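wait is this the right file?? whatever heres the structure
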């Protein structure tokens, strides 16, 4: 956006010089003469700057509106019960495992700098209820995973 503002300002300079009836060099000479004689008005040139600023601010808001229309993003925070993060744990500095409740199923999602990937999907209603009951606020997701790992070893050993 700053590049656009600089380009707009650079584009306005030749227009301002031509509006005054001459080249950029002649405009600079007139400006230096005006500054020596004090003939320059208080508001001269400021209206062009304010106009350019208004255009840039308007374009920022138009781009924001366009992005919202394109992506379908809502203005407020994402909420509701259709999907919620039940628990999360850090695997490393920039990687996490999330337990996401989505409708009647639970998704185990890996999140990192490269994006998000579904690691597992739990659709059994009894298992979903049990995991939601175990994933209480304040209880670490790592503890929940450790409990499931122990259950899997027991089931495999029988």
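ok assuming it is, sequence goes like this
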């Amino acid at each position: 956006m700053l590049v656009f503002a600089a380009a707009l300002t650079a584009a306005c300079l030749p227009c301002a010089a031509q509006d005054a009836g001459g080249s950029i060099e002649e405009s600079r000479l007139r400006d230096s003469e005006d500054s020596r004689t004090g003939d320059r008005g208080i508001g001269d040139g400021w209206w062009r700057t304010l106009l350019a600023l208004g255009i840039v601010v308007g374009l920022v808001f138009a781009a924001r509106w366009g992005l919202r229309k394109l992506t379908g993003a809502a203005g407020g925070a994402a909420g509701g019960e259709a999907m919620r993060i039940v628990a999360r744990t850090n695997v490393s500095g920039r990687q996490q495992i999330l337990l996401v409740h989505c409708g009647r199923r639970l998704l185990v999602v890996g999140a990192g700098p490269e994006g998000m990937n579904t690691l597992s999907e739990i659709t059994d209603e009894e298992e979903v209820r049990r995991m939601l009951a175990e994933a209480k606020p304040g209880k670490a997701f790592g503890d929940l995973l450790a409990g499931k790992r122990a259950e899997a070893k027991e089931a495999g050993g029988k």
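DSSP finds five helices and four strands in the chain. so i think its the right one actually
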